[in-house]
Amino acid sequence: MSFIVAIDGPAAAGKGTISKAVAAHFGFAHLDTGLLYRAVGAKVIAGADPIAAAQSLDPVDLEDDSLRTPQVAQAASEVAVIAEVRAALVAFQRGFAARDAGAVLDGRDIGTVICPDAHVKLFVTASAECRAKRRFQELAGKGMDVSLETVLADVKERDARDRNRDAAPLVPADDATLLDTSDLSAAQAITAAIKIVEAAR
Ligand code: C5P
């Protein structure tokens, strides 16, 4: 039977880094569900209808490096408020979670909506300033022309939209373990997450 780890939290809290490391440590598959919404957002920027784009999404659409830009992140959070877009992406996520080897899914609503029976639920947070700083360093490191102020404003705008929407808002599941990474290095956050998963195995 599949062992499911749900990792939710706001933008740039460290979910991606933690999820990849947890998946590698336990030999689980990993799905960054933000990529689904980013892929739909990118198609909408290119002129597509959001619901049609979500309904015809192909897993190869997720492998595009251009999905990592702040513009696509904003478009993702705009399409993510549409209930029909979310509904079109549920089956793929649940199918992924059911893989025999075990799976780590990270996103906003994994522990609350997609996999409410996940064996482990982590809610990863950090202050908006910490998250913006990390995202800024990541984007600048890739050679993108961004300022810390713009990244902070982007992160706050996306958080507000994700938290306040009607469809699957960003909120910790009642049974989630909170992990605040503000004062942790990546290595410390990974160690803490692995311990939590280990305890549930
Ligand atoms: O995680 P990432 O920052 O790549 O997600 C981009 C956007 O996709 C988020 O701001 C959020 O609006 C949306 N999203 C979502 N549910 C998920 C994953 C992402 O609504 N499970």
Topology readout:
Elements: E1 4-8, H1 15-26, E2 29-32, H2 34-45, H3 50-55, H4 70-79, H5 83-97, E3 103-107, H6 110-114, E4 120-125, H7 128-141, H8 148-164, E5 177-180, H9 186-200
Bound molecules: cytidine-5'-monophosphate.
Keywords: ATP-binding, Cytoplasm, Kinase, Nucleotide-binding, Transferase
EC number: 2.7.4.25
GO biological process, one term: pyrimidine nucleotide metabolic process
Structure described in brief:
By secondary structure, this protein is of the alpha/beta class. The chain is built from nine helices and five strands.
Describe the protein's architecture and organization:
Its main location: cytoplasm. With 201 residues, the protein is of the alpha/beta class. It starts with a strand and ends with a helix. The chain contains 9 helices and 5 strands. Helix content is 53%, strand content 12%. The protein binds cytidine-5'-monophosphate. Cytidine-5'-monophosphate (C5P) binds next to helix 2, helix 4 and helix 8.
Low-confidence stretches: none
The coarse overall form would be globular
Radius of gyration: 16 Å
What ligand molecules are bound, each kind once?
cytidine-5'-monophosphate
Termini separation comes to 12 Å
Number of helices: 9
Organism: Yoonia maricola
InterPro entries: Cytidylate_kin (IPR003136), Cytidylate_kinase_dom (IPR011994), P-loop_NTPase (IPR027417)
GO molecular function: ATP binding; CMP kinase activity; dCMP kinase activity
Binding site for ATP: 9-17
